[in-house]
Amino acid sequence: MPILIKNCRICANGKVYSKNILIKKDKISKITNKEPKADKTIDAKNNFVLPGLIDAHVHFREPGLTHKEDFLSGSMAAAKGGITTILDMPNTIPATATIEALEQKKRLAAKSIVNYGFNFGSTENNLEDIKKAKNIAAVKLYMDYTTGDLKISDFEVIKEILKASKMTIIHAEDEHVKNAVDILIKNKIKGRVHFAHVSSQRELEYAKSNKLKKQITVEVTPHHLFMNQNDLQHLGAFAEMKPRLKTENDQKALWHGIKNGMVDIIASDHAPHLKEEKEQANYPFGVPGVETMLPLLLDAFNKNMMTLPKIMELCCENPAKIFKIKNKGFLKEGFDADLVIADLDKRQAVRNDDLLTKCKWSPFEGKILKGWPVTTMVNGSVVYDNGNVFNIKAREVQYAG
Ligand code: DOR
Ligand code: ZN
């Protein structure tokens, strides 16, 4: 049953067009000025239609930590935020660092209503499993403290992991970014490296001011873009994550990096913890983010801080390219019908009560943002529409190469 989305505004090649989008089954069949026959019509009301966002960095906490989130709650929150694909992180219990744990996670993720993929954890002694793991986005390597116990300090082990993996996402802070780059250069390692949540000017320079430009990609998070360490005064533990918030200057450097092309993607690092947990003296690190990432970026668009093509590049196109996700990231005929209709004029406050994440809080609570997703479609089915979520199962993504 074909679906026609009428009156879409879309951005392509630096221009804005008014188009109708015909969806057949799970694919974009035509982007056209005509009105082809369809069984169902959705009126986009001249709102902008973007490719669904690909969030390459989420912690959906299943298995083992499902009081904080699970694949259903996390994916519902993602759908509400205009995200149609997520890549999950391995610091669950058990960690996704064995083939068995990966298989178990694949089964659990079947309840997700947005498309999903997995990052495989590295440990001091799982090289064989790293080599065997199939259909993963990347290997995740923790060089610094994180929730769970996946941190690796031995540079020899790190070298072997980088050699064994075609694509490694590294959680490295400060000097560790430089150390990782040095290991790549010294050992002439050819595998690609993606630095997660780069949070400071120094980290950005270490990651990008070297001769490995093509091999290294950089991710920044909305919390490092829209907050800085001054926010700790009123938010306390609710603004504590790893890497921590940095200075205003560092925040500016990340924005500068977006403008000058040093930043390749934006990902939420959605890391939900319950309020009660955050209120304890030894609170855990991390903040939720899937529901607020696109609204924050659309608000930034409305403040002339960033263009819509840049949002699409950093949140849709580049994640698809970097992680080689098949058939996603672009509004193009033949591509998967993963898209989001966004009302750029809608003004609304972030409210804890509205959130679908199990943790039910956001560091951005109370902030009035202009620009919100209104409808999200995954694989040709509407999964979110104006406050309503539809429990339609999505699927695991596939990778090219
Ligand atoms: O703040 C963080 N939270 N940083 C991490 O590295 C892990 C994450 C989590 O899983 O809670
Ligand atoms: Zn993370």
CATH topology of the domain at 52-322: TIM Barrel
**Order of strands side by side in the largest beta sheet?**
6-7-8-9-10-11-12-13
CATH architecture of the domain at 52-322: Alpha-Beta Barrel
Percent range for β-strand residues? 25-35%
CATH superfamily of the domain at 52-322: Metal-dependent hydrolases
Please give the largest β-sheet. 8 strands, parallel
User: Count the strands?
Assistant: 17
Q: Give the helix/strand class.
A: alpha/beta
Small molecules bound in the structure, each named once: (4S)-2,6-dioxohexahydropyrimidine-4-carboxylic acid, zinc ion
Protein model, in words:
With 401 residues, the protein is of the alpha/beta class. The protein has a domain at 52-322: Alpha-Beta Barrel (TIM Barrel), CATH 3.20.20. It is built from 12 helices and 17 strands. It has helices at residues 71-80, 99-108, 127-132, 155-164, 175-186, 201-208, 222-226, 232-235, 248-259, 275-278, 293-302, 308-322, and strands at residues 3-12, 15-24, 27-32, 40-43, 48-51, 53-58, 83-88, 115-121, 138-142, 167-171, 192-195, 216-220, 265-266, 339-349, 368-378, 381-385, 388-389. The strands form 3 sheets. The chain has an 8-stranded parallel sheet with strand order 6-7-8-9-10-11-12-13. α5 (175-186) links the parallel β10 and β11. It is globular, with a radius of gyration of 20 Å. The two termini are 32 Å apart. The model has no long low-confidence stretch (mean pLDDT 97). Bound molecules: (4S)-2,6-dioxohexahydropyrimidine-4-carboxylic acid and zinc ion (ZN). (4S)-2,6-dioxohexahydropyrimidine-4-carboxylic acid binds at residues 59, 91, 146-147, 171, 241-242, 271, 284-286.
